[in-house]
Amino acid sequence: MTVTLADIEAAAIVLRGAIAPTPFLRSQTLSKLSGAEVWLKFENHQFTGSFKDRGALNKLSTLGPEVKQSGVIAMSAGNHAQGLAYHAGRLGIPATIVMPLGTPFVKVTGTEVLGATVVLEGETVDDAADHAHRLAAAKGLTFVHPYDDELVIAGQGTIGLELLAGGVALDAVVVPVGGGGLIAGIATALKARAPRTRIYGVQAAAYPSMWNALHGGTRPLGGQSVADGIAVKTPGTLTRPIVQALVEDVLLVDEGTIEQAILSLLDIEKTVVEGAGAAPLAALLSEPRRFAGQRVGLILSGGNIDPRLLASIVMRGLARVGRLARLRIQLPDRPGMLGQVAHIIGAAHANILEVYHERAFSQFSAKSAGLVVVLETRDEAHIAHVTAKLEAGGFAVERLSPNQPGASEDAAG
Hints:
There is one protein chain. This protein is an alpha/beta fold. It starts with a helix and ends with a helix. A six-stranded mixed sheet has the order 1-2-10-7-8-9, with helices on both faces. Strands 5-4-3-6 form a four-stranded parallel sheet, sandwiched between helices. Helix 5 (79-91) runs parallel beside helix 6 (105-113). It contains 18 helices and 14 strands. The chain is elongated. The model is unreliable at 407-413 (pLDDT under 50). The protein has three domains: 5-47 and 149-316, Rossmann fold (3-Layer(aba) Sandwich); 52-143, Rossmann fold; 322-412, ACT domain (Alpha-Beta Plaits, 2-Layer Sandwich), CATH 3.30.70.260.
């Protein structure tokens, strides 16, 4: 092994006083819902919002005076950038971060606020990495890899020591996997001290790079993922053998389940996590039989989610469970019809959030209009009740799925 328990214990000494241990708490509600005893490690409570603070500080602490004066550089889509920027600033080290062009503004701004110089280059993290290496060579900067570095891995492994210090005998721990630095560090610590604890990784199904490495698979990689923090096409050369030796398996989760996990943690635990941070809960929700009756630790690795994306996930989630609904109602195109519809909906105790007419693009007779309403409702039974009341009032009603076009979408097309 390239990283040992002694390396992780040494990292814990470096981090002491600069990084506070994060909460490790049992979730009563998630335990009841999942059939497992669920414990949550809140790494989204770190100062920069993710576990990346740990590895970044451990790496920076080893640099010599000349290297610190010249500065460091990294490629990152967000969390490694902010962790490195924050601790480089604390230590007086100039930091440059290369980010892909499509990086959310909130992450770019968050990195700049912490004192780093941000360079936007390339369509992907791999493109950004190529540019960062070129800049490092041209300017004499030290490249700090987000996961394929022994010191970074050891820093992330301090989470494992904190799990052990919590005094909870875990049967399993589920860890999000991108390049593998986090799971390699945690697995090294846990397997040295609690060898019976099984370690599972979890990846977005769109980016099964470590799964492919473990299983000799050739699943395709690419596309958009809400878990952009673990959307890595190539696992680390240092992390891969550690994962192969110590990790039970890597599980794959789809986008809808990750969104559901983000919403569940927000609604139940009142905590904000990004897609990567929600992936362990998504794995638990996807495979409840695997973990039933076991004491399971979930690593909530980060909470740096784009607010616009979070808002979209919340609204989509509400629609999925029947707390939002879109109805297309056919009504005669004459005065007073809108008022009748509104009265029926109000009497059924639903709340109208949006309303618009379909005329030019309507599928109905020229003497009729399509009325699309977005309603706030309690659940699926309430939607059915509202629909029945409208139909009893003489109106034809069609429920629109979340991705089915209404008037504005038809017009745009």
